[in-house]
Amino acid sequence: MLQRDRIPLQLIFLQVALVVTWCFTDMETGPGASVSTQPNGDRFKIEGRAIVPGIKTQDWVSTARVLVEGEEYVGFLRTDGSFAVNDVPSGSYVVEVVTPTYRFEAVRVDITTKGKMRARLVNYIKTSEVIRQPYPLQIRASGPHSYFMKRETWGWTDFLMNPMVMMMVLPLLIIVLLPKVVNTNDPEMRKEMEQSMNMLNPNPELPDVSELMTKLFSGSKGSSKAGSSSKGTRPAAKRR
Amino acid sequence: MAKLILLWLKCVIFWATIEAVFEDQVGKFDWRQQYVGKVRFSHFDTHVQSSKKVLVATERNVFAALNTRTGELFWRHVDKSGSEGNIDALLQHGQDAVLMVGNGRLLRSWEISVGGLNWEVVLDSGSFQSACLVGQQDMVKHVAVLKKTAISVHYLSNGHQKWIENLPETETVDYQAVYSDGNGEVYVLGVVPHSHIAIVVYSLEDGEIIKQMSVEAPWLSNIQASCVVVGQGMLTCVDSAAMSFYMLDLRLQLQMTQVPLQAYSVNLFSAETGRRLLDTTLIDFYSVFQLYVQAFLKKDDSVGYRAMVQTEDHTLTFIQQPGRVMWTREEALSDVVTMEMVDLPLTGTQAELEGEFGKKADGLMSMVMKRLSSQLILLQAWIAHLWKLFYDARKPRSQVKNDITIENLSRDEFNLQKMMVMVTASGKLFGIDSKTGGILWRHYLDNVPPNAAFKLMVQRTTAHFPHPPQCTLLIKDKDTGLATLHVFNPIFGKKSHVTPPALPQPVLQSLMLPLMDQDYAKVLLLIDDHYKVSAFPSTKNVLQQLQEMAASIFFYLVDSSQGRLSGYRLRTDLSTEQIWEVVIPPEVQRIVSVKGKRPNEHVHSQGRVMGDRSVLYKYLNPNLLAVVTESTDLHQERSFIGILLIDGVTGRIIHEAVQRKARGPVHVVHSENWVVYEYWSTKSRRNEFSVIELYEGMELYNSTVFSSLDRPHAPQVLQQSYIFPSSISTMEATLTEKGITSRHLLIGLPSGGILSLPKMFLDPRRPEIVSEQSREENLIPYAPELLIRTEWFINYNQTVSRVRGIYTAPSGLESTCLVVAYGLDIYQTRVYPSKQFDVLKDDYDYMLISSVLFALFFATMISKRLAEVKLLNRAWR
């Protein structure tokens, strides 16, 4: 519905080709209906194995579960990391191994009414795209979950490269250096400068730093004061 | 400068979207409690002498190992809820525990030291009766499973079936028990009610029937209820009607020996002493449901015992020999139905200060004196507090104990600590301290019907000192509709002195009015099935107020079986009058849920500032109801879900949306001017989110007050949908005190995570093509798929199994929202949807700020000195 309208012709062709080659004629129809219409139909078994590289299975299997389409069907892991979810009717399901510590990719498993199985990558946007995965499933953990943010640590370089500091230091430099390089009291020069400042600022309605600055240029004495006051507002504003 | 501030704000907003937990915050303000549910089967792990495990299988389809010393979980496996995950039997042999699951459908073997699965096999369908381990020459290698019509024997090592045999005469005999004595024979016991016991003996080797017996037992109707096999094949049954005891040696006799019960007084006595012992050790002792005793020989050859007691109120108590309670687990909390958070009372001194305002003014001078004295008391308390801080700081940290008891409960500075009042399905109420998770009070209501519906309401908060806070629990029997009220103090759990009205008629609807009686208790209106209204409290003052207000009190009723939604108005004589009705044909679709807005929700900004500096005003109708319907036709091509936005006062349908090729379960959140719902798309086989936002337009019709009766313009409706890569269990929105903080959606996932998804991502104004204006508005470009990032999990690895509800409450800080997720587990935490903008962060760098200040100070001193010197020099020139 969302992106389907824009599926390129190529992909449709690919899709058709795949359907033909794999003989999954009932891929698009059936599965959802079969769940509801034939509760006593044939039941199948989804099998596979989950692997966490470098970790003993005993250390994580007791916290793991296999969830098929949410919590519709639940399986548990054996002590060697393999699993089987029993009593699943034909259909198309997303199978995922869930543990609080390790991240596993979900896999979509299609089961035909005859019990033929195939696994493919989960793609929620192009739901009929088929990129085959091995079946019985081989699900390898892609590392531990990252739940936490890193605290910002404080260093001089961070402080100096901080955009806020840059924004304060650069104008200060300009304020201090510019009056020495150009004569700000020259009206033509001032006009030119104003124009260039307006170019930088696309929205003329906004009250702007540049205006403030040009005002400051007229009297270079107040500049240091303004600089320090802006420095003062930063921590105060943060605290608010 | 303005641009600077704008940029800074942008930074804040940007950071808000990637809000997450820091690693050092773990356990600082969050806690989790894990439960297993009411125990159905239990086994002490005895195969190793030093084992500390006790295995439990519960009614909530959980299989777990508990530590006998502490009561904590070693591991826990949560199966599907419902009958398919139902645990029928638990057997244990050595390292293995064998479980029968789903009415004899699955046979599972668990490795109990690790908590991993050994094997799982599917059995033929058939009603499960009994299971037992089968031994042969002291070696247990098989497990026998008895179904209604067949018996099968499986290998214990891999679950493979050894043989299966049909039972003889299944039309007349009701087979109920299976037993093996370890000699290669399997006894199947059946009963013909009020006639005889049929015993069939099978050979373990090949499943052949060795012999069939029949024993007269005209008094027996059910073996499982009244019989047990003890010792070496000794069937013992109790006939409670004749007060006697029957024994049958399964191997030899063909006749039951009857023993009058008095002869077994020894057994009874020992059981009785145990009972008496328990009675003396427990304070809250309700009737015992189940008792699991493990007797063992101690080193000095005396008999010791350990016992696990399951009581009626779902408390699990573990008792060691001399009647010492080792631990208790409140398993009722595995099934929390509803909850509320109540502010804690002020401390004594604060309350005194507050009380000053409550009294009548009596002269200027005395008021000043009173104020001065109370300020003095505060100062005194503050100094005492400082002294205590100083005193505690010198002691090592481990010695400082901050035990929270009911006596020293008091509100903290930012009102972050609250009392969680939890109502469980078993009818037990709990008061839990939100900071530590400690249970401060518990109260068991013993007259609660098994299928009751609960509604908890706070009638009076703690703000009205010296009146005690008051909560009212409405308990409604779903079958009869009859309801009772339980009024209690939420801080202490004590039943209130206020007697609630008796409710002889079934209650259809209850509503809390913002009206208060003279004691500051909010008025609760109850509507019975004759559409008569009764008020609680119903003092004269209240009735008078009601009469005055009657014209502006409206309510709605939902009858989902008939698909009828109707609105009523209150008349001054407390009768009602129907003013509107919407009928949704129940043959086509049925009403699944009706959601209003939360009454304690505040919306800070009336509108949204657009990119061109104009304002788009929100349609903030407090009476708006979101009605969700599902089609009765479940075929994937024809099923649909519908959402109706109805004004609860006028019955006007504001908006109607239908999602074709979709089915439930639908989860809805309705807040401010938006409704977010989630459903299953049958066409694309994925979960989808949809958001509806309502706007008044560029002008506000009446900005001072909203009236449903005077709103001529229909609101503008915007809608957008997204793909969500997981199914969800429950959903709730964050809530803050003033509504300034941006909102997040808290989504409970089946994996146990609680995702905090910024509402920004669910915004129907997200543009497909980015323009200058949308960038100015900070709109995120549209992307069809919403992402689940584990950094957004507010509960990191503390997963919450089977999340059933998420409760959010505002705290005293605008940035902070308190969250409690409950299901099988309970998890409490705080979330900061826009980060902590109103308090210093816990990693605030005091050193930096003070060093900068000092540096500046010295710099000014030095420059002043230099300037003076310079001036002096100039003056000399």
UniProtKB/TrEMBL annotation, chain A:
SUPFAM superfamilies in alphabetical order:
Starch-binding domain-like
Please give the start and end residues of each transmembrane region: 159-182
* Electron transport in keyword set: no
Q: Which subcellular locations apply to this protein?
A: Membrane
GO MF annotation terms: carbohydrate binding
Q: Does the keyword Signal apply?
A: yes
Residue segments, region Disordered? 200-240
Leader sequence range is: 1-23
Which residue stretches does the UniProt record annotate as biased composition, category Low complexity?
Answer: 218-232
Please state which protein family the record places this protein in: Belongs to the EMC7 family.
PANTHER family found in the cross-reference section? ER MEMBRANE PROTEIN COMPLEX SUBUNIT 7
* Subunit and interaction comment: Component of the ER membrane protein complex (EMC).
Q: What is this protein called?
A: Endoplasmic reticulum membrane protein complex subunit 7
Taxonomically, what lineage is the organism? Eukaryota, Metazoa, Chordata, Craniata, Vertebrata
TrEMBL record, chain B:
Q: Name one GO cellular component term.
A: EMC complex
Give the signal peptide as a residue range, or say none if absent: 1-20
Which keywords belong to this entry? Disulfide bond, Endoplasmic reticulum, Glycoprotein, Membrane, Signal, Transmembrane, Transmembrane helix
Q: Where is the ER membrane protein complex subunit 1 C-terminal domain?
A: 671-876
EMC1 first beta-propeller domain residues are 20-270
Topological category with respect to the lipid bilayer: Single-pass type I membrane protein
Keyword Transmembrane belongs to the record: yes
According to its UniProt entry, one GO biological process term is: protein folding in endoplasmic reticulum
Q: Could you tell me where this protein is found in the cell? A: Endoplasmic reticulum membrane
Answer yes or no on keyword Transcription regulation.
no
The UniProt family comment states: Belongs to the EMC1 family.
Whom does it interact with, and what assembly results? Component of the ER membrane protein complex (EMC).
Q: State the name under which the record lists this protein.
A: ER membrane protein complex subunit 1
